[in-house]
Amino acid sequence: MPAMQCNEFMESLDQWLDGDHRPDAEAHLHSCAACNGLVADLGKIQLAARELHDVEPPERVWIAIRAQLEQEGLIASRGWLSWLPSFGAAWMRPAFAGALLAILAAGGFMFGNQYQKNNIRAHWVSGNQAATAPIEADLGTFELHAVSALHEPNATVNVAFKKNLEIVDNYIAECEKSVQDDPEDELSRDYLYGAYQQKADLLEQMSERGGSHQ
Amino acid sequence: MPEADVIRLAQRGDPSAFERLYRMHNRRVYSLCLRMVGNTAEAEDLTQEAFLQLFRKISSFRGESAFSTWLHRLSVNVVLMKLRKRRMPETSLEEATEPDEESGGPRRDFGTADLQLTGSVDRVNLQRAVEQLPPGYKAIFVLHDVQGYEHNEIAEIMGCSIGNSKSQLHKARMRLRELLHETLRSEAREQRQAVKSEAAGET
Asked: How far is Cα A147 from Cα A169, in angstroms, rounded to an integer?
């Protein structure tokens, strides 16, 4: 049988790379440095390609997708919870997780306040997301109204509201510190945004309760 | 819960089913985008766009093909659209696969030292070389050699024949080899230059 030529080997190159090692192709490789070099190179490329492992996208990708789906009405909004990461997610930071669980345990502010949320979102989007003063000013004004609207300051529910407010404020302070420490960390900024949303929700409920007793 | 059930729930608008589908496939889709564009910010945008398209169209999914194939087809289209908008300079396919004039075999490089890539291929160099491939080659190389899809699956994802997938992969690999050789040559040139400069400094 005549020896295989380079052009014939090239035609069977893919089979060779897929592991189909015909004896005539093998004999050709022994006698041809160029084809031998080519096969060695392609083997190295294949090996390096297999080492390019899959990578996990950052959590902000899902947050953005969910926000868009909510905006388009493809999924129902979960209120302020929609801005928070899923509980039990492996990447959740312990300090934040603790604060969040404390807030959830305190409970009582699951209703939405679209006006305040939109206000916060507008500030968040228009600002550089590190300058939080306009958001804090908005919340400060809202807080004055909400607290003054509460009648019977010593009533059990009102005391619980104030306690919750304290927890949310602590949570905000913790998130702000995290953003100050690393202003480029998008996850910290997402948490801070979520914290502001929570406070807006809570203040709205306090106002509603105050209004209902007038 | 089996994927088919999650898909049915997502088709009914269940938010947790959307999230579950995202968690099941986000690594593959993001990695595909990342390998094709070589930039994390762009890969994030493309992943977002691919999943949004998926969720917008999920009610039309009838299960004729595997869900992951469907999602990959969407993702590849999103990335290819993006790459086409970038108007990358196309590399001549002939140049990458031009046979040796005399033997019809692989084109020989000058000097025996260049005949073969020395040592293992550095992943960073490979990623850079992949980025320089024309979009079609890039997609098939990433799907086959990086993500491990078979030619019949790639044909379905890319909407081409199996033969076409094989031929594009062959051309992609040959072009990659050439690009990696160029990298090695330029690194060697830089080293020689550095040695020369050092020697000139000593005298």
From this structure: 14
**What is the rounded CA–CA span in Å between residue B145 and residue B165?**
12
Who among A40, A44, A55 is closest to B34 (CB)?
A55
Structure tokens of A129?
A: 């997301």
B104 touches chain A (CB under 8 A): yes
Q: Is the ipTM of this complex over 0.85?
A: no
- Which residues between 24 and 53 in chain B have a beta carbon less than 8 angstroms from any beta carbon of chain A? 26-28, 30-31, 34-35, 43-44, 47-48, 51-52
Window B:59-98, CB contacts with A under 8 Å? none
Mutation for A interface: B55, B166, B184, most A CBs within 10 A: B55
pLDDT tens-digit readout, A76-94 = 765 444 444 443 343 344 4
Distance from C-alpha of B162 to C-alpha of B177, rounded to nearest angstrom: 23
Other Cβ atoms closer than 10 A to A111: 12
Kindly indicate the confidence band of residue B123, based on its pLDDT and cuts at 50, 70 and 90.
Answer: confident
Give the tens place of pLDDT for each residue, A22-50. 888 899 999 999 899 999 999 999 999 99
To the nearest 10°, report the CA torsion of B174, B179, B180, B183: 160
Q: Which two tokens stand for residue B183?
A: 């990298």
Residue B42 confidence (pLDDT): 94
Q: What are phi and psi of A76, to 5 degrees?
A: -75, 145
How many angstroms separate the CA of residue A161 from the nearest CA in chain B? 30
Distance CA B8, CA B6 (A): 5
* Tens-place pLDDT, residues A176-194: 887 888 777 777 777 787 7
**What pLDDT does A17 receive?**
86
